[in-house]
Amino acid sequence: MKTSAGILLYRFAADGPEVLLVHPGGPFWAKKDLGSWSVPKGEYGDGEEALACALRELEEELGSLPVLDAEAMHDLGEVKQKGGKVVRAWAVEAEFDPGTLRSNTFEMEWPPRSGRRQEFPEVDRAEWFGLDEARRRVLDAQSPFIDRLDRLLEADG
């Protein structure tokens, strides 16, 4: 079973809490929007600590690691995506300017069966969304992370 770990950044705006989601890069996702965004995350293997992976992937996908308080991480638990992958996430309050996004890249044959290889960003956009809009944008299986964060923030008052 594949496992991934990620960090859901949040901040407080005038209209209420916002979360940072990322949009996958590459040709398959280019025209997809609603239901295609994600928590910045990546796969980890046996022997690797999930939180360490989540922090590494956050830095790789955003291009820099935002200043954050590792002691203030909130464990949001796990979800299982349609393909069977289990994703674990943490939430932490931090700032990030989406204009500074510098994602790592991946290479694939494109167009298919062309024999040509092209490089694409792993993440082509990052954006802050209010919680309701984030629920519309994020992959269905990851929406429980937003719900859990919402309940956590309400409990903290």
Structural features:
157 residues; alpha+beta; Nucleoside Triphosphate Pyrophosphohydrolase; six-stranded mixed beta sheet
Descriptive notes:
There is one protein chain. By secondary structure, the protein is of the alpha+beta class. It is 22% helix and 36% strand. The protein has one domain (3-156): Nucleoside Triphosphate Pyrophosphohydrolase (Alpha-Beta Complex), CATH 3.90.79.10. It has 3 helices and 8 strands. The protein is globular. It starts with a strand and ends with a helix.
> Roughly what percent helix?
10-25%
Give the full name of the CATH homologous superfamily.
Nucleoside Triphosphate Pyrophosphohydrolase
SSE class: alpha+beta
Under the CATH scheme, which architecture would be assigned? Answer: Alpha-Beta Complex
CATH fold type: Nucleoside Triphosphate Pyrophosphohydrolase
Beta-strand content: 35-45%
Give the N-terminus to C-terminus distance in angstroms.
37 Å
Total DSSP helices? 3
Q: Which whole number gives the mean pLDDT?
A: 95
- The total count of strands amounts to 8
Largest sheet: 6 strands, mixed
The level-1 CATH class? Alpha Beta
Number of self-contained structural domains: 1
The parts where pLDDT drops under 50 for at least 5 residues are none
Query: Helix-strand pattern, N to C?
Result: EEEHEEEEEHH
C-alpha Rg, in Å?
Answer: 16 Å
Principal-axes shape call: globular
